[in-house]
Design a protein that fits this description.
The complex is a heterodimer of chains A (336) and B (253).
Chain A (H helix, E strand, L loop, with lengths): L6 E10 L2 E11 L4 E6 L5 H9 L6 E11 L2 E4 L5 H7 L4 E4 L3 H4 L6 H12 L6 H14 L5 H6 L7 H12 L6 E5 L7 H18 L2 E6 L2 H7 L2 E6 L2 E7 H6 L4 H9 L7 E2 L5 E2 L42 E3 L3 E3 L2 H5 L2
Parallel strand pairs in A: 3-8, 3-9, 6-7, 7-8
Antiparallel strand pairs in A: 1-2, 1-4, 4-5, 9-10, 10-14, 11-12, 13-14
Helix pairs in contact in A: 4-5, 5-7, 7-8
Chain B lengths: L6 E14 L6 E14 L3 E5 L6 H8 L5 E8 L3 E4 L3 H4 L6 H11 L8 H11 L16 H14 L4 E5 L7 H18 L2 E6 L2 H7 L2 E6 L2 E7 H6 L4 H9 L11
Parallel strand pairs in B: 3-7, 3-8, 5-6, 6-7
Antiparallel strand pairs in B: 1-2, 1-4, 8-9
Helix pairs in contact in B: 3-4, 3-5, 4-5
The chains are: A alpha/beta (336), B alpha/beta (253).
Chain lengths: 336, 253
């Protein structure tokens, strides 16, 4: 991939009032690539998505850039007027959310909702009949068995998986440069979840769409992503190829997360010799009360006094490791 | 688990139906169709199924909260429930300690003067610090709220706990600690737990036995390890195939 990445977050910070919620996040996604942004509640992963979409109600981008390279050239979304942002959303930037029921209009038939998107974002389809054909074709692409029937249905008449397929069809109606998927499979059953993840991957590949896949679910990340970035308390702690991050995490936080997964291999004897999971004691610090130095330091099993020292500007950034990986941990820097 | 271990819950040929259709043509829509199982002391039994499989309805029937149309439910001792979202089951206006003490008072399990001490003991039992006693639920993290939900359930001195997707909303690092706590309660108190979930990975860690539900009927049941090693029913196999642990990266095409 020689062209510029579709999305580059460059030292992005977001503030809500006095609280810094996102603190110097840098990442990039290439054309056709899927990046899983993994984080627990309060990590700032959804705020990252909202910042890219320009939907930070009550919050502001307090530093850094959000560079999107699409059909309209390169633009900094952090500085784009709302009028232009509105034109991008649903067109060059598509979105899918956890709960399609809240994104779909319950009083409108599915067909009318897809036609609305096509009218807005596909000026090349000049006639209503062309748009209707395209709507049916999109639904067929997402694996809906009987598109004409789905087009006539109201959202409540479809299953959760079907509704998510409709959302995916709408998201891809204008071949978006960037897809933001925020926990799109969390509310689905295991079987449906696997099929929807495969569908997102296939659609993104065929449209060359860069995907920012926001999740707390390692299984979903493993199924869909090429690379992973781990966010904790508003800072990026690690990123790299998905297999490397999940199989041999570099940062102590990622290691703790992976060891917490309900996997029989992760069971280990406790002090009384009973088989227990790892878990991570402590809680995620809230934005106003984040510690000095490394944000994970108060919960870190290998923290040293130096980890709590106030950081110099820019020193919270990720440092390169072998294998295209990066991590923000003092312990990794001093290792040979 | 020996045969001498007392059975706390016996469910025999349970049928549950909810009313459906317009009021002039009400009919009964069966949700649970002839389910039988038992839960013994000190045992965690998983009820696995997808949405609509009837797993939560069975839990509600055991707790006396669903219309049983046929069958028998025999229960020894008290049963308590814990839910997915403790914020909706805890009183937002009432301090954590007071909510636990309320349960002690209702069941007359501690004298007025001893309730505070017992509430603190219960908070510590679930791994919370005593100074959470005076907090409101909104001031707690998700993991702390889940633990308060468990402490409040334990206050009634149940022999059986029904956990309906109790860890589904928790982050993995927090979920791990809550699963450890449930295993500790089983091992230390001999508590039996009926654990309802769609998360097979959690069942594998936590449950001694599991039942797989599909369209309101049990399609397969057995020891968890055996069930995972050699599922005999097509639906169980499909469910297991659809579930991908994070480590199985290389199956992807």
């Amino acid at each position: 991939m020689t062209s510029a990445p579709v999305l580059v977050l460059d030292d992005l910070s977001v503030r809500f009032g006095a609280a810094t919620v996102l603190d110097g996040v840098s990442l990039h996604i290439a054309r056709g690539e899927t990046l899983a942004l993994i984080g627990e509640s309060g990590s700032g992963k959804s705020v990252t998505a909202l910042a890219v979409m320009g939907l930070l109600r009550g919050g502001t981008v307090s530093g850094g850039r959000i560079m999107l390279t699409g059909r309209g050239g390169q633009r900094d979304l952090a500085r784009l007027p709302e009028r232009e942002m509105r034109r991008l959303r649903g067109g060059e930037i598509a979105m899918i959310f956890q709960e399609p029921m809240s994104a779909l209009n319950p009083l409108m038939r599915i067909g009318a909702q897809i036609l609305e998107s096509l009218t807005l974002h596909r000026p090349d389809l000049r006639t209503p009949s062309r748009r209707r054909e395209e709507a049916a074709a999109l639904l067929a692409q997402t694996g809906i068995a009987d598109p004409p029937r789905a087009l006539r249905a109201f959202p409540h008449e479809l299953s959760g998986g079907m509704r998510q397929r409709v959302m995916i069809a709408m998201a891809f109606c204008a071949s978006p440069a960037l897809l933001i998927a925020d926990e799109p499979t969390t509310a689905l059953d295991a079987a449906t979840r696997g099929r929807i993840l495969a569908l997102i991957r296939a659609m993104a590949a065929s449209h060359g769409t860069a995907t920012l896949f926001i999740t707390h679910d390692f299984g979903a990340a493993a199924a869909v992503a090429d690379r992973a970035a781990v966010l904790y308390a508003g800072r990026l702690l690690e990123d790299g190829p998905i297999a490397a991050v999940l199989d041999s995490p570099a940062h102590p936080y990622t290691q703790g997360l992976i060891a917490s997964l309900p996997d029989p291999a992760a069971l280990h004897p406790d002090e009384r010799g009973r088989r227990r999971l790892h878990g991570m004691p402590g809680t995620v610090p809230t934005p106003g009360r984040r510690p000095e130095g490394c944000v994970f330091q108060p919960r870190c099993p290998i923290a040293r006094p130096a980890c709590a020292a106030p950081m110099q500007p820019g020193s919270g950034a990720l440092r390169p490791l072998p294998g295209g990986r990066r991590a923000a941990c003092l312990a990794l820097e001093t290792a040979p | 688990m020996t045969d001498a271990t007392p059975t706390l819950l016996t469910v025999e040929d349970l049928h549950v139906a909810y009313p459906a259709g317009p009021f002039w043509a009400r009919r009964a829509r069966p949700v649970v169709r002839g389910v039988s199982f038992d839960v013994r002391e000190g045992e965690i039994v998983g009820l696995i199924g997808e949405s609509g499989s009837g797993k939560s309805t069975i839990a509600r029937a055991v707790a006396g909260l669903a219309p049983v149309t046929a069958g028998r439910i025999a229960l020894t001792g008290r049963v308590q429930m814990i839910f997915q979202d403790p914020l909706s089951s805890l009183d937002p206006m009432m301090r954590v300690g007071a909510q636990i003490e309320e349960v002690l008072a209702i069941h007359r399990l501690a004298p007025r003067g001893g309730r505070r001490a017992r509430a603190v003991e219960l908070l510590e039992r679930v791994g919370l610090s005593a100074d959470l006693h005076g907090r409101l639920p909104a001031a707690l993290s998700g993991g702390q709220r889940a633990r308060v939900g468990i402490a409040r359930a334990l206050a009634a001195e149940p022999r059986l706990l029904i956990a309906d997707e109790a860890t589904a909303a928790l982050d993995v690092s927090v979920q791990a600690l809550v699963l450890n706590l449930l295993m500790d309660l089983r091992d230390d108190l001999g508590l039996a737990i009926l654990f309802i979930t769609h998360d097979l990975a959690v069942v594998r860690i936590l449950c001694d036995r599991a039942l797989v539900l599909h369209h309101g009927a049990v399609v397969e049941a057995g020891e968890t390890a055996a069930l995972f090693a050699a599922p005999s029913h097509d639906y169980t196999r499909a469910l297991l195939a659809a579930h991908h642990p994070a480590r199985r990266l290389h199956d992807r095409t």
